[in-house]
Recover the amino acids of this structure.
């Protein structure tokens, strides 16, 4: 899978079939978060669709690890795939209503 920088400064992940943008500092300060990447599009296939993580949610961490850039999504999921890991992945998000939630996916 690949992560591509698109014209609007968003990143698209083939493996996740989703696009992301890094949250600007002003929004991180507003939400009181250190890291965050907004989901700008979720395709018909891929992990985010299976996890029901919708567009406009802000991903703050995966398994408790802060995600600094959209490219880090690719690295984490590629490692899971290559090492054929099994278990649960927890994705921490901020919803459109500013609620903090966690999505879990068992693989």
């Amino acid at each position: 899978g690949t992560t591509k920088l698109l014209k609007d400064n968003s990143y698209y992940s083939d493996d996740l079939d989703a696009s992301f943008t890094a949250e600007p500092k002003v929004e991180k300060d507003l939400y009181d978060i250190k890291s965050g990447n907004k989901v700008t599009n979720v395709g018909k296939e891929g992990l985010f669709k299976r996890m029901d993580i919708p567009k406009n949610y802000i991903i703050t961490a995966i398994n408790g690890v802060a995600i600094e850039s959209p490219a880090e999504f690719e690295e984490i999921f590629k490692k899971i795939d290559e090492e054929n890991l099994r278990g649960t992945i927890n994705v921490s998000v901020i919803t459109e209503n500013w609620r903090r939630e966690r999505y879990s996916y068992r693989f």
Summary: The beta strands are 3-5, 11-13, 18-22, 37-42, 58-62, 65-66, 88-94, 100-106. The longest strand covers residues 88-94. The radius of gyration is 13 Å.
